[in-house]
Amino acid sequence: MDNPSFQLTPLMQRYILHWGEMGSRWGVNRTVSQIHALLYLSPEPLNAEQITELLSVARSNVSNSLKELQSWELVKVTHVMGDRRDHFSVVGDTWDTFFTIIEQRKRRELDPIMTMLRQCEVEMGQDKQTSAHVRKKITEMHTFLDGMLQWYEQIATLPRSSLLALIKMGTKVIHFLPKKKAK
């Protein structure tokens, strides 16, 4: 490896392996997640050969995984003086990673669901076969997801300092909300 000073400690290995396991549970390829974890921990950009060696995975798997991470906008290509190879590093910090993952999942998963729900609601106007119960459920799902996505859009524009303050407030914020009337 080009940088013999960068070695994986047992703690780093545990972190990387666990991140890979979690990625699998979230529907992301294990190697993709492990490479992201490795690059997150690395103090400097790594090239594909270094990643292959450090994780003991096939070079083709590393190439495909890096392309996937780039498509998610989680990893960027950087260049090192005197080295023609591409080097890779994570984009931004922990907050950037968090919001990038949420935005990508929204774009890839929730936006198509919202499009389908809007189409269903339009079609319900002419549909005489679908029961009122099913129509109500589709409308409830559309209303719920639309509200959650609007909330996300508002939260995503807050400065980090405000987000941190909001998180630290935790359930204390409930005291500022109107009380629910007893039935």
UniProtKB/TrEMBL annotation:
Keywords: DNA-binding, Transcription, Transcription regulation. Coiled coil: none annotated. InterPro entries: HTH-GbsR_regulator (IPR052362), HTH_MarR-typ (IPR000835), MJ1563 (IPR026282), WH-like_DNA-bd_sf (IPR036388), WH_DNA-bd_sf (IPR036390). The keyword Transferase does not apply. SUPFAM superfamilies: Winged helix' DNA-binding domain (SSF46785). Residues 27-85 form the HTH marR-type domain. Pfam families: MarR_2. Belongs to the GbsR family. This is HTH-type transcriptional regulator. It comes from Simiduia curdlanivorans. The lineage of its organism: Bacteria, Pseudomonadati, Pseudomonadota, Gammaproteobacteria, Cellvibrionales.
